[in-house]
Amino acid sequence: MKKIILTLAIAALIISCKEETKDKVQEASEAVSSDVKEAVDTAKIKAEKTLDTVKAKTKTALEKTAGKIEEGAKKVKEAVKK
Fold first, then answer.
1. How far is the CA of 15 from the CAs of 10, 52, 71, in angstroms?
2. Please, what sign has the CA dihedral across residues 47, 52, 58, 61?
3. CA–CA gap between residue 39 and residue 45 (Å, rounded)
4. Which H, E and C letters describe the chain, residue by residue?
5. pTM of the model
6. In whole angstroms, what is the distance from residue 6 CA to residue 16 CA?
7. Mind listing the pLDDT tens digit for each residue in 33-58?
8. Cβ contacts of 3-8, under 8 Å, gap ≥ 24
């Protein structure tokens, strides 16, 4: 009788520990998941800002280059007319 009660008590203890462990694992998984989502969102925002900066700089550089090409073309036209 004592052995049966002792066995049942140990079984109950093991089962309750498994449930607590599952809960802790689930909570940890959710925490890691939210951290990863935040990191991805932050990286996305930084990438978008960098892309916008590159676009703006490229546009400015192209405008300057286009202006210089036009000036060069005018000089060539003037030289041809002379």
1. 9, 56, 84
2. negative
3. 10
4. CHHHHHHHHHHHHHHHHHHHHHHHHHHHHHHHHHHHHHHHHHHHHHHHHHHHHHHHHHHHHHHHHHHHHHHHHHHHHHHHHC
5. 0.53
6. 15
7. 899 999 999 999 999 999 999 999 99
8. none
